[in-house]
Structures are given as C-alpha cells and as structure tokens.
Amino acid sequence: MAIYINRELCTGCELCVEICPFNGVKLDDEGIAVLLDACNECGACVDECPVEAISIEVIKEGVFDIGQYSGVWTFAEQRDGKLTRVARQLVGKARQLADVLGVRVESILLGHNIAELTQELIHCGADNVYLINNPLLENYQTDLYTKAIYDLTMEKKPEIFIFGATHMGRDLAPRLAQRIKTGLTADCTELTIDETERHLLQTRPAFGGNIMATITCKNHRPQMATVRPGVFREPEKDLSREGNVINIKPNVLESDILSHLVQFLKLEKKLVKLEEAEVIVSGGRGLKGPENFTLIQELADLLGGEVGASRATVDAGWISKDHQVGQTGKTVSPKLYIACGISGAIQHRAGMQTSEIIVAINKDPDAPIFKIADFGIVGDLFKVVPELISILKTKKAEEMVV
Amino acid sequence: MRFIVCIKQVPDTTNVKIDKRTGRLMREGIPSIINPEDKNALEAALRLKEEFSGEVIVISMGPPQADEALREAIAMGADRAILLTDRAFAGADTMATAYSLGSAIKKIGKYSLVLCGRQAIDGDTAQVGPQLAEFLSIPQITYVSDLNIEENKVVAIQELEDKRVKWEANLPALLTVISEANKPRYPSAYGIISAYREKEVETWEKKDLDVDEKRIGLDGSPTSVKRIFSPEPKGKGEIIKEEPKKSAEILFNRLRAKNIL
C-alpha cells in the first residue's frame, strides 16, 4: 500500500472523505480517517488534507533518462489525403507548449503521396515535419503505423507526443504507448506545462465530466496524450512560415501486418459530422415526438449547422445514434450550440459544455441546461424556434438584396 | 474455442447526481453495474459460443465487490469467471491494468478471441483493449459493430467517423466492441441460480500470477493523478423571459453582436 494516514495528525475533518472519487476512505470509530478496500491510491486526498496527515509513496524504476528527450510531437492524422481539423488543432497547442519549454514542434505525417500536406502543418506552427511516405501506409493500418512511428520515436526521443482522440488516434496511441512502455492520458481537455518540473500537466474529465483530474507522467518519456477533436482552437495559418520536411524511410513490410484490411464498405446514409460542425442545433425530450425534429433541422439548415440530439430522444428511437451528443455520444465544441427542449443532464453537458456559445430554449426555468447557457430563453420551443426561423429568413432575404 | 471477455465494474454514472450546495459528486447509493459496452462484448462471445461451441471466460480486475459483476456475467451465460483482486493491483493506470489482465490471460492458456468493450463509462479511455493486444502480441480490431469467425479467422466490421471498414485477422485476436453490435441478453432464471448456487468466482491474487511487481498497481503505472477537482462552473449567462417573438429577437441581436451570426 502506498498511501499512509498519520493517525496523530488527522483531525477528522473529513475533507479526504469528501474528495475521494472512489469511496475509499472513511472515519473510524475514533473519528480518524482510515482507508477502505475501494481506495484506488489515486492520491486525491493527499493534496486535500489540510494538516498533511496523508502521504503517498511512489517507488518508480528510473528506466528513462528524461534529459535525453526533447521536443513536442504531434500525430498529423490525414484521411484520404486531407489533414483532419484536429491535426491542425494539435499543432496549435504543441506550439504553445513548445514555446514554454523552448523546444521544437515536430509533426509526424504518414501516408502515400501526401507531401503537399507538410506545408499546411508548417503554416500552422510546426518547425519540422517527418514525412513517412510508403504505399503500404496509404490507408491507416494499426501494425504498420505503430511500427513506423515506434522506430522514429525511439530514435528521435521527443518529450511530448500528442494525438487526436479520433477512432484512429485511439486505436494507435495505446498500442504505441504500450510498446514504448510509457504513459498515455486519454481525452485531455487541457494541456499545460509545469514550468519548474518541465512536466506536462494533462487535465481530463472523469466520471462523465463530473470531476476533472490532472494527470502527470513524471518518470517516463515521451509523455503521451490524446485530445478530443474541437477542444483546442485551430491556429491562424501563417503562410510565410518556413520549416523543414524530413523524409523518413520506414522499415515496414507486408509481413508486419496482423489485421488485414478487406474493404471499405459503403455507408447507407449521409454522415452526421457533429465533431466538425461549427453550429449544432439539438433537440431533446421537449420535442415530444420524432416528427418535430424537422423544426430543429430547419433551424440547423438556416444556420448551416448539423442536428444533435439528447440520449433520451435516441433511446426513444426518434433519431439515429450518430446525432447523439453527450457522454455516450459525441463530444462537440462548435461556435454555437442551441439546445431545444433539452433539460441538460450532466451526461449531455459533458458532451457540449466546451461549446463557445451555448443557447438553451426550455419551458422549465429550473432546467440544469440554463446553468451553462450563455443565453437562456425560458419559453415554449414550439413558439420560440419558429420565431427565430422567421427572423433568420427575413434577415437572409434582406442581406441578399444588399 | 475459448472466448475471453474482459469486464469492468463501474459506478452507474448515468445516475450520478451533483450536490447542489457543494457542487460535489454524490456517490452515496450509486449502483455498480457491468460497464455497458463490456456487456456487448460478453453478448458477442456468448453468440459465438452458441455457433461454434466452446467456453466463455469472463475476467475482471477490481476490488472484492467486483465479484457481483462477475456473477451477473455467469447469470448471462459465462462458463467461468475470474476476479483479479489484490491490494498490489490497486492504483493501476491503463498500462498496468493491461499488463495484469494480460498476465492472467496467459495463465488461462490457449484462446481464440479476447473481447473487450470499447471503453468504460467511468474513465472513457478506450486504452486497455489495444494495450492488452500489444502486450499479448496479437492483432487488434477496435470499434467493432459486427463480427464472425470464418475458417480460423475473425472477420469484423469497424465503425470509423466517416467510414465502415471490413478487417480480417488470424486467431487469436482482440476486438473492442461498441454498443451498436448487439443487444445484451438478460440473465435467465437458470443462469441466476447457477451464478449464486452452483458456480464460483475464482479469485486470483498477485501470488497466483507470474507478474513483475514493478509492473503492477501504482508502481507499474507511468501516469499518476496529481489533482482531482470539480469543474469550474461557467459564468452566469443571461436569461431571457419575454414573449416568444421578443425573446427570439433579443437572442438574434445578442448573437449578431458576438459575430456568431
């Protein structure tokens, strides 16, 4: 056991009981804190204790010579020859981190015939782009991407390596981290540098966004993290920015492949790209029935946005799951999020609370969604939304004339 | 064929409530459940067993009370259940978890498939599956919505953001399953009796496994929690309580002023 409670110092204030996310500590008969089996040794109580009665002992192997590692790397995810938005967002964040550390930003780009994307990464803030070009890498494949990136990581030794928490990123990063034997933190919403220790502070939501945890990876390098798309802003491109493109010949062979791509299948319907949308209009139980999503669709169309939905409407079968925003659905961060008839359970809020502007339209003035709304309209959505549609149509017509 | 399913007992976060006064999580009385997508993984394994015959083994790492989740899995139809429980495993991050689970799987012996849920609702990391596949040096297919075994190969459909991809891998392999894959069955009456009267959950401690002490629990975890805090509440917004038309106009003007429209 690595957490110790000093019975002499404990005052029984119960702050540790309150902060513990695992119900892992309670007061015993003498009113002194004791650990329970549920204790996960997360260390939350250590910082919380006002009298320093709780301590944590961490024994780590010093296998990594941390001083050898330098630079901030980003995985430049491309699909069908185009950079993803999150690839650009990562470079923007990496630039900020690297400037604090006084090191280089380097992006890792894999694929086939994608050299033109290197300039885009440089314009976003990369100093160097490692271009790993090979016909075998044209489409993402776990084993080959892992091998090519692993080899380069071990050779160049970056101190930080960040990935988009896309399906590809979440398939690749854990496999890679396990091979390197370093730490990986999923779905970070904030990345900063502890300037005295030069550690990456990785903050992420847990328990469906109910609590936030700051994670560090002190004794292993690189410090790896994934970031959900849309959490960080895309940097302004500086077209005059210059950088180096370094061509890397990967040591990958057909025989390295364990999972074989058979074919891409046709999607039956139009894709809902919530994560990429700048405007999302969402409907909840207040819509009363599936037919009323047409109202939401009309408003979304006028604003050039996508339609989102609460879990309740998806579970009720009013709309398909790919529209679902929230903990078990998608996390979105558009410029404008309009929640219509959504009460705003924490699971829903966890998926949209980082939106730039949140508008809530709800009959119930006590609906939790109003707590995070920038603009909350207390009223009947069936009356307010048509009025909003009519204003938008009028303005649109006026501006066409001008 | 032998199918191994990794499950996690999690607090039902869909029922979590926040204390209005303190803004903290209220954990009292929150039920523990099998992580939803792990149930989809178990259902997939049970269906494969029905088709190809064999054995379904569920395995979980957690505190002693995770026994309950494993009994539920037996009630759903699992043949064997193993609980890895030891204070030495506590504080594990995803890498140490993958190492411990993987060491237990190596002890079980030969297997055809390891099935995991895509991610757990308490941590949402989706990391243990791929890390476990890497530790076992077997192929992985993630985000699986459909799977089958054909001539000693697993064929699976992966759901990406903008594509559906059909993959094929030799056995043994590891798959992570999403909720769209199937609808998990309810425990049968016979299953419930069997889970509580006939079958036992096997408990494996550190001494039962061939593990390196430095790679399990807190000591085997490269990452550690520095701080836990409640998310900062957003600044107070503006509440508009006018007639519908007026409200809509005010909103439009506010959004215009912020260059949103």
Describe, in short, the structure shown:
With 402 residues, chain A is α/β, with parallel strands linked by helices. Chain A has helices spanning 15-19, 44-48, 85-101, 117-124, 142-156, 167-180, 293-302, 311-315, 346-349, 369-372, 381-401, and strands spanning 3-5, 25-27, 33-35, 54-56, 72-75, 78-79, 82-83, 105-111, 128-133, 160-164, 184-188, 190-194, 199-206, 211-216, 223-227, 244-248, 259-265, 279-283, 306-309, 336-340, 357-362, 375-378.
Keywords for this entry:
heterodimer, A: alpha/beta, Alpha-Beta Plaits, Rossmann fold, seven-stranded parallel beta sheet, five-stranded parallel beta sheet, 22 strands, globular, B: alpha/beta, two-stranded antiparallel sheet, 29% helix
Write the layout of secondary structure elements.
The complex is a heterodimer of chains A (402) and B (261).
Chain A: E1 3-5, H1 15-19, E2 25-27, E3 33-35, H2 44-48, E4 54-56, E5 72-75, E6 78-79, E7 82-83, H3 85-101, E8 105-111, H4 117-124, E9 128-133, H5 142-156, E10 160-164, H6 167-180, E11 184-188, E12 190-194, E13 199-206, E14 211-216, E15 223-227, E16 244-248, E17 259-265, E18 279-283, H7 293-302, E19 306-309, H8 311-315, E20 336-340, H9 346-349, E21 357-362, H10 369-372, E22 375-378, H11 381-401
Parallel strand pairs in A: 5-8, 5-10, 8-9, 9-16, 10-15, 11-15, 18-19, 18-20, 20-21, 21-22
Antiparallel strand pairs in A: 1-4, 2-3, 6-7, 12-13, 13-14
Chain B: E1 2-6, E2 9-11, E3 17-18, E4 25-26, E5 32-34, H1 36-52, E6 55-61, H2 67-76, E7 80-84, H3 94-108, E8 113-117, H4 128-136, E9 140-150, E10 153-159, E11 164-170, E12 173-177, H5 189-198, E13 201-204, E14 224-229, E15 238-240, H6 244-257
Parallel strand pairs in B: 1-6, 1-8, 6-7, 7-13, 8-12, 9-12
Antiparallel strand pairs in B: 2-5, 3-4, 9-10, 10-11
